[in-house]
Design brief:
This protein is of the alpha+beta class and 791 residues long. The protein has 20 helices and 25 strands. The two termini are 85 Å apart. It binds adenosine-5'-diphosphate.
Length: 791
């Protein structure tokens, strides 16, 4: 903090030194008794100010021809009439006068020009008898005069004699100040013209920057978070941008010379009172805890009063209050500086930028006032730079605030995502538990030799329940992929076996539709490949499932082809070809987006959510593989991808026929199991499934009970639910293992295997079966671990 203050101090000191240097430049010639002798002055170097004692005729508007009629007084030029004291006399602000100056020019001089600034509030300037410049119309009554303000640059005629006589008529009936207050410049016309363009360029550049900056922030306010700080800053920039062209040299007025002075002076004054209001509000909203509310109220009240005065009273009246307004404004900027200092002490966002920028603004005002009172020359470049620095630093303060808001929003969004994913995971768990009962019971009913009509209804029930299950699974999966939570295993996988299992699993579904499901596996793939069997199986299953779903007749073919084989790796193309409805060209890229189906009627006719392909594509993409599609409506589709996988040392397994067990097989006869499950519906489903196949089932409803009931001599295997009251499946397994039980304990879970497997295996569970289970999967796992029945 101190460091910053020291830096600001140094900057101010350096600038003051620079300014003093400017002020100390060699003294320019001064007019005496209405005569300015420039015979020994080099006019080609820089413009000369026509200041000093001019001839002065108060309450006379004299033309060049009538000058000789009266002897003039001499008065300093430029000086406001209210500051004149000639022969002990004071002058009013309203009135009219003529000024004269004779200038002796050097022999060698460039082509000359004049820069004539505005006066309060109208003038006509003659050079050697001819009118050269005019602002409005000076007259001896209010009615015969019109005011106007603009800075004019004029080029003097070529055949200029060595002596020129300047006559200037000035009249004021409208402003609280009267008379001349800015210096007229005489110099090389090229320099003056260049200066004019330079000044105009500065003014328009700054006005343009401010206006565009203001619009930008206004856009942020409108399309963003409706943050009032941004709104006030944007309006402040826009309003203040007018002041760059509508005050000081009045660049705008030089462009449009028929502007109405009574309108423009009101806009000029209003722009200031409005800017102060907006800046006060901006500061109040930027650091509300550091601004005293009474300050804001008082300032706004003060500005509003002045605005009302500007709008309701005559120009003579409202211009009288300007000095008071400027003093209050100066103090308000100093107070803003104090607020930013306080904010910086409290380490508020962007406060250092805000503080620096206000320090710069104070400096600008200091410079403008020093120039106004004639202590320093006009430092347009410094003022321009300072203005740009002020707005730039204030923008930084705002941007800082924005960045902070975005950071907070990002954190909140992440929290939201976490909550969403927790919610989805809980929901899917909760949905899967009752689904387990629905699917399990339907399986049971289907195997109890139902009537043909009942079988058909049960088929619909099973289809819908499975569909619901796949939707729940898909949503959960997509959520995980979006969160980047998905990881890939690198273990030996038997690709031909995966393909065979998928085909076997979906054979019935295809058969029911009269679609033949064919499998073609490259025989050269004789070793296992390194990859993720679960995800690979999910991808292929999705593609084959879709193909069957969207094929009414003909065939669906799964082809696994080795494109390239080396000793260590195989490049494999997995292709699913169907003779189904096909996909129109324009829909082909769309169907990979989430929740998108080629046809809006798809979900009605075929079910699904439009998530399957999005998931499939993402799973492949995350492994650096692209999913491709060739399709023609009415002819069929071909989904395929090519992936290079390393070989493992293990040979692939033998072809196993996928079997559907029937209850009459009494597959589990002689096996006694302990089923540990708290949900009575799940108990009913599992118990019936198992007993129908000949198993004997003892039931425990939580971990504690399981510890009591397990009898190693009686039970060949334990089916253990993981989430239970009193004692969950993990804890119970740990305690059983501690007790020395070595029998297989199979986890039953409504979560996905990935979610529970590390904890489950660490606890000592032997395998995992996911609910809702297909009876055949359950039988197979039991047979695998408990050994054949009747033992
Ligand atoms: P879902 O099958 O749940 O609608 P997917 O993401 O798996 O969602 O598929 C998106 C859409 O792509 C489907 O609705 C369907 O319009 C189209 N589609 C996918 N596979 C095929 C196919 N084999 N034949 C024709 N259209 C298909």
């Amino acid at each position: 903090m101190r460091g910053y203050l020291r830096k600001i101090g140094w900057t101010l000191l350096t600038l003051t030194c620079c300014l003093t240097c400017f002020a100390d430049r060699e003294p320019a010639p001064v007019a005496r008794k209405g005569l300015l002798d420039l015979r020994n002055t080099d006019l080609s170097d820089h413009p000369i100010k026509l200041h000093g004692e001019w001839g002065f005729y108060w309450m006379h508007l004299l033309s060049p021809d009538s000058l000789t009629a009266a002897a003039p007084d001499f008065a300093p030029y430029p000086r406001l009439w209210k500051d004149l004291h000639l022969h002990g006399r004071d002058y009013p602000t309203q009135g009219y006068a003529t000024y004269t100056l004779t200038i002796l020019l050097p022999r060698n001089r460039p082509r000359l020009g004049l820069e004539v600034p505005d006066t309060y509030c109208s003038y006509k300037l003659y050079v050697n008898g001819a009118v050269q410049s005019q602002n409005g119309r000076p007259g001896d009554t209010k009615e015969t005069s019109t005011p106007f303000w603009a800075t004019r640059t004029v080029v003097l005629p070529l055949a200029e004699p060595d002596t020129i006589v300047v006559v200037m008529q000035i009249a004021n009936f409208w402003h609280a100040k009267g008379g001349p207050y800015k210096e007229i410049l005489l110099g090389n016309k090229d320099d003056l013209i260049q200066k004019k363009y330079q000044d105009a360029a500065y003014d328009f550049l700054l006005a343009g920057c401010l206006f565009m900056g203001g619009l930008f922030f206004l856009g942020l306010f409108i399309f963003g978070r409706h943050d009032k700080t941004t709104l006030y800053f944007s309006l402040f920039c826009i309003v203040y941008s007018y002041r760059m062209v509508g005050t000081d040299t009045y660049t705008l007025h030089s462009l449009f010379s028929d502007l109405n002075w009574f309108v423009t002076i009101r806009i000029e004054y209003l722009s200031l009172s409005l800017s102060v209001t907006l800046f006060t509000l901006y500061t109040r909203h930027l650091y509300p805890d550091d601004v005293h509310p009474i300050f804001t109220k008082a300032m706004i009240w003060f500005c509003h009063t002045y605005t009302a005065i500007i709008l309701l009273t005559s120009t003579v009246i409202f211009t009288r209050f300007m000095t008071t307004f400027l003093v209050v404004m100066f103090f308000s900027i100093a107070y803003a500086m104090f607020v930013y200092l306080k904010a910086a002490r409290h380490k508020r966002s962007g406060s250092l930028y805000a503080m620096l920028s206000t320090a710069i603004l104070l400096l600008v005002f200091l410079l403008l006032n020093l120039h106004f009172f004639g202590f320093i020359p006009p430092l347009r470049l410094i003022v321009l730079t300072a203005y740009i620095a002020f707005f730039f630093l204030q923008s930084l303060a705002l941007s800082h605030r924005f960045a902070q808001t975005f950071k907070t929003a990002a954190i909140q969004a992440q929290q939201g995502l976490r909550t969403k994913s927790e919610f989805l995971s809980t929901m899917s768990h909760e949905i899967r538990t009752p689904l387990n009962a629905v699917i399990g019971m339907t399986h049971l009913l289907l195997r109890n030799e139902p009537r043909a009509d009942q079988k058909e209804d049960l088929g619909v029930l099973l289809f819908s329940a499975n569909n619901l299950l796949s939707i729940v699974n898909n949503i959960l999966d997509y959520n995980k992929i979006e969160e980047g939570k998905i990881g890939f295993e690198q273990i030996p996988m038997d690709l031909p076996a995966i393909a065979r299992n998928i085909v076997a699993g979906l054979k019935n579904a295809a058969g029911e539709k009269g679609v033949s499901l064919l499998l073609e596996v490259d025989q050269r793939l004789d070793r296992k490949l390194i990859g993720d069997p679960t995800r690979t199986s999910q991808v292929i299953n999705n593609l084959v499932h879709n193909a069957i779903k969207f094929t009414k007749e003909g065939s669906v073919k799964l082809i696994i082809h080795a494109d390239l084989l080396t000793e260590s790796a195989a490049t494999v193309t997995v292709k699913v070809v169907d003779t189904g409805i096909g996909i129109a060209k324009e829909k082909q890229s769309m169907i990979f987006d989430r929740f998108t189906q080629a046809d809006s009627s798809t979900s009605r006719s075929y079910g699904g959510t439009g998530l399957g392909l999005a998931i499939t594509k993402r799973i492949l993409e995350l492994q650096g593989v692209a999913l491709q599609l060739k399709s023609e409506p009415g002819k069929g589709s071909e989904f395929y991808y090519t992936q290079t996988l390393n070989f493992s040392e293990e040979a692939i397994g033998q072809h196993e026929e996928f079997t559907t067990f029937a209850f009459r097989d009494q597959l589990l006869k002689g096996i006694t199991l302990l089923l540990v499950e708290d949900n009575p519906l799940n108990v009913l489903v599992a118990q019936t499934m198992l007993e129908n196949c000949g198993a004997t089932v003892d039931v425990a409803t939580n971990g504690l009970e399981a510890l009591e009931k397990l009898n190693a001599a009686r039970h060949r295997l334990v089916l253990m639910d993981l989430h239970m009251p009193e004692m969950d499946g993990y804890e119970a397994t740990v305690l059983l293992r501690k007790r020395g039980e070595t029998l297989p304990i199979i986890a039953l879970t409504a979560s996905t295997p990935k979610e529970v497997e590390s904890e489950a295996y660490a606890a000592g569970l032997t395998d995992i079966v996911v609910k809702p289970f297909n009876p055949d999967d359950l039988y197979r796992v039991i047979l695998q671990h408990a050994g054949p029945a009747n033992q």
